[in-house]
Amino acid sequence: MSKNDTIKKRYNRIAPIYDSLELLMEKGKMGGWRQNLWQKVQNKIDKAGMKLLEAGVGSGKNIEYYPDDLEIFAIDFSPKMLKEAEKKAQKYNKEVNLLEMDIQDLDFEDNYFDLIINSCVFCSVPDPVKGLKELKRVLKQDGRIIMLEHMRSQNEFVGKMMDLFNWVSLYTWGANINRKTMQNIEKAGLELVEVNDLMSDIVKEIELKK
Ligand SMILES: C[S@@+](CC[C@H](N)C(=O)[O-])C[C@H]1O[C@@H](n2cnc3c(N)ncnc32)[C@H](O)[C@@H]1O
């Protein structure tokens, strides 16, 4: 089985219980981090007809925050996660084009989106640099990528612990806890606009441009 199929299968498996598993985290810090991220998005809406992509929409936890005045596309490669996202779109009465698609091979033309958002996605994209390069390709020249991502700590001890226990989250969730996301961003040729550490150096809100 390819790496893509393995990760997809894990998210399909976990999709029906994904929200319950993450409930505590969402009620804790994560919910607030999401709200801040979408406030940042709101502040960037400065013209009509802007296009936004949520890459790796998952079960649709960001959908309730989608601004009403944008054309929104949300993609994921797990059909079962997309099914959960569809329920959220109905629940919150949001207009969103939900599509089954691979971040590493996006079916959008170059320079298409004004804003690209992702939360907790590049821990599981099988080839993160390829995925980030695809986001760069579909981002407009003056566009912005805003992401909320957890990654491997730079602290030697904590980083090594994350390496040691990575297999647990990889097997159950399909997510890695030891991704070197800042290096991956650099390898993809994206430029940092702003980086905020939210939890030590492990969870960050990052704004990027091409
Ligand atoms: C940890 S979940 C996060 C979901 C959501 N963004 C959130 O904040 O709750 C990661 C999601 O990324 C999706 N994903 C991982 N690799 C992908 C890829 N190559 N293409 C599309 N979706 C991908 C998974 O299917 C999963 O739904």
TrEMBL record:
For this entry, list what GO says about its biological process: methylation
Show the GO MF annotations: S-adenosylmethionine-dependent methyltransferase activity
Q: Please tell me whether the keyword Transferase is annotated for this protein.
A: yes
Entries under InterPro entries matching the protein: Methyltransf_11, SAM-dependent_MTases_sf, Thiol_S-MT
Q: Which UniProt keywords apply?
A: Coiled coil, Methyltransferase, Transferase
Q: Gene3D superfamilies from the xrefs?
A: Vaccinia Virus protein VP39 (3.40.50.150)
Q: Which CDD domains match?
A: AdoMet_MTases
Which residues lie in coiled coils?
A: 82-109
Note whether Disulfide bond occurs among the keywords.
Answer: no
This chain belongs to which protein, by name? Phosphatidyl-N-methylethanolamine N-methyltransferase
Q: Look up and give the organism this protein is from.
A: Halanaerobium saccharolyticum
